[in-house]
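#lab-general

N.A. 3:47 PM
ok so I finally got the sequence cleaned up, no stray characters, all 300 residues accounted for. can someone with queue access submit it? mine expired

B.Y. 3:52 PM
send it over

N.A. 3:53 PM
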Amino acid sequence: MSKVIKNSVFTVLVSWFFFSYAFANDRGTKGSIELLDQARKEYQSDKDALDQINRKKDEIREKNKDQKKPNSGPEWSEALKVWLPLFQKAEASYPEYLNALVHAYCDLPSASAQSKELREEIEQQHPRSSITVSDQERRSQLANAALPHLLNPGLEKEKADFFAQFLKPGFSTKVDDFFHLLRLPAEPQDWSEQVAYSMASLRAGNISTSRSQNKKLLKKATRFAEIHETYPEERRNPAYSKKVREYRFYRALIEAHDGKGKEARKFLSLALENTTIEKLDPIIQKLVQEIKKRLQGLSQ
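B.Y. 4:20 PM
back already:
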């Protein structure tokens, strides 16, 4: 499994922890703010320590700038030994902070002053570009933090609009979609930002955009799932078949929201092939309940 997929899975698991935690403990807004305060404090402490050693590395590099290899020598090696665990610690605490931040924001009424403050804090965590691998990972982490809340039918439309603005796929996703459209060779990518954007668009009332993004996701996931079906069993990656199922559930929800009962039932039936609702993740079970409730409304 690639590093991108591993990071995506980890972030989703952390996000789901925060999302389910508040429901299981019924601590409400106060609880989510307390979790955020703790996570923010821990991440800021880790970041400050990392920033300090990064400044030390810059000083060493400046001192050795006239040497053939500025990034070398005993002092540099010692700094690297200190830097690595601090970097790993900051990387580990950041997703917890980000998920706590998104959760607290989604918990608060949009009109509250604190909600606006948290909104600005989220904006500060969102990379404006997706050029570097680090930027792409941060954008992916934000998408995975938002997704559980975007699957919640009770999310305020204003918050869905906010996430839709930030999660709009960038150039790399458009290139990826183009390659798959023409069935050109393409490497597996992290599609979490596109998934969250599709669901944010749905909750914001932009069904056509949500459906368009879902079609692209299904095309890509189905293509890789079919490719892996041709591999020997020991080399197959079941992640793509799982993504196909997941995206079919989302498509069923999209069609149900659009009043297209026949299409919604078709995708729901496809998603439930070879499984039962009881075997699904709790968040998907709630999604199925929402789909069925919508379908019942269409039948009346």
